[in-house]
Amino acid sequence: MTDSQQEYEFTCPECGQQFEVNGGMRDALLERGCPVCTSTVPNDAFSAAMT
Amino acid sequence: MSLDQQTELSSDAIDELLARHETGVLTLARSDEPYAIPISYGYDPESKRFYLRLVSTPESEKRQFLTSSPQARLVIYEEAGRTYRSVIAEGTLNQVDPDEMTVEHIVQYGDAKRPLFEIWGETKRNLDIQLFELDAETLSGREVVVDEDEE
After folding, report:
1. CB spacing of A35 vs B105 below 8 angstroms
2. Please, what is the average pLDDT of chain B?
3. Which Gene3D superfamilies does its entry note (chain B) (predicted)?
4. Among all residues of chain B, which has the CA nearest to that of A20?
5. Please, which residues bridge with residue B26 across strands?
């Protein structure tokens, strides 16, 4: 599990889609894949969000 | 062929049929011009909301029908022996902004894995993939059983 309050920048390595996610969304992306293109999401698709 | 029995599906039976399937036919219209396409969907029975993923290009016919939250119908059907069932959802199609994505969106779009992008002959990065929600304002289902002795 990840910190649900932590913000990340998600970038899909397949379709290039980017959006900010929290910890819960990060977990869901790792489990379910990219909602836009359906590709599997690896751990390195996330970086710390700029605040 | 005669119709032996035709009944309306209950709300639970509609939800069960929609859970059994992941593809249907989405129909849009512009003036008197119809447009129907096969789509994949995720479905949340609590909110009666469908989650759709549509692929288009700037010049595509599909794009022309997707402007400004159009009214749409979604048809899902199945055939099992002599029993035919169909569900029709009608409502407004709204585009989902990726910046407003939620955990629920990610889960529901994870359940809508098709279509296979390979058929487009393009890498995913070159495709314009848009996410939509269809809130079913009306949702109806029907079951028809065809008489065994008559064809």
Report:
1. yes
2. 84
3. Electron Transport, Fmn-binding Protein, Chain A (2.30.110.10)
4. B99
5. B37, B74
Q: B124 and A29 in contact by Cβ < 8 A?
A: no
Mean per-residue pLDDT, A7-25: 93
Task: Output the CA–CA distances (angstroms, integers) from residue B54 to A1, A44, B10, B94, B132, in the order listed.
Answer: 31, 27, 29, 12, 8
Cβ atoms of B96 and B62 closer than 8 Å: no
Which residues in chain A have Cβ-Cβ distances shorter than 8 Å to B125?
Answer: 14-16
| ipTM for the whole predicted complex goes beyond 0.85 | yes
| CA B99/CA A38 separation, integer angstroms | 17
CATH class of B3-146: mainly beta
What b/e string do you get for B59-88 counting C-beta neighbours within 10 Å, with b at 16 or more? eeebeebbeeeeebbbebeeeeeeebbbbb
Is A35–B106 a contact, with Cβ atoms under 8 angstroms apart? Answer: yes
B31 part of contact set with chain A, CB < 8 Å: no
Parse chain A into domains and list their residue ranges: 8-48
